[in-house]
Amino acid sequence: MKRIFAMLLSLLMTAALLTACGGQAGLQDGYYTAQMSQFSHGWKEYITILVKGGSIISVEYNAENASGFIKSWDNAYMQNMLHSNGTYPNEYTRYYAGQLLEGQGEGVIDAISGATSSHSTFQMLAQAVLEQARKGDSSIVTVEAAH
After folding, report:
1. Torsion angle defined by CA atoms of residues 107, 115, 42 and 145, in that order, rounded to the nearest 10 degrees
2. According to DSSP H, which parts of the chain are helical?
3. pLDDT tens string 87-113
C-alpha cells in the first residue's frame, strides 16, 4: 500500500512540475516586445505578446511612425494599400498575430498576398519575441533587418 501511495504521489508531483513549467515552447509569463531597429517606409514594426500560464494569450503586431502613430489607424494608408496590394495593415497584422496566437509559436505563419514584406518582418520579430519569452527577459529586443 505504501508503494502504491508513493508511486501516485510521484506521478502527481511530476504532473504538477510539468504543468508549472508552462506551455509547449517553455514560455515564461510576462509581456515581451520585439521591434525592428530601423523605420521602413516611415514605419517601425513591432510585436508584443502576453504569456500567462506558459501560453501566449495575446499578440499585438503593428507598426508606428516617428511620432508614435499606429499604422493600422492610418485610413489614407489603408485605402492606398488596399487598392494597390489587395490588403491593408489592419487586416494582415491581425491575421499574422492570430496565427502566432493559434500556433503558440510552434506553427507555420502563412503569408498574405500583398503583405509578403511584412510577413518576412513578422517572422523575424516573432522569432525574437519568442526567444525573449523563453528566457523570461522582458526588455525590448531590437531586430536588424536582413540585407
Report:
1. 50
2. 2-20, 75-85, 89-103, 116-135
3. 877 788 888 999 999 899 887 887 777
Asked if 28 and 51 count as a contact pair (C-beta separation under 8 A), the reply is yes
Across residues 13-39, what is the average pLDDT? 70
Gap between the Cα atoms of 52 and 55, Å rounded: 5
Report yes or no: 87 and 81 within 8 Å, Cβ to Cβ. yes
Look at the pTM and tell me if it is higher than 0.85.
Answer: no
**DSSP conformation class of 73:** G
Q: What is the pLDDT of residue 142?
A: 96
3-state secondary structure of 59: strand
Q: How many CA atoms lie within 13 A of 43 on its CB side?
A: 18
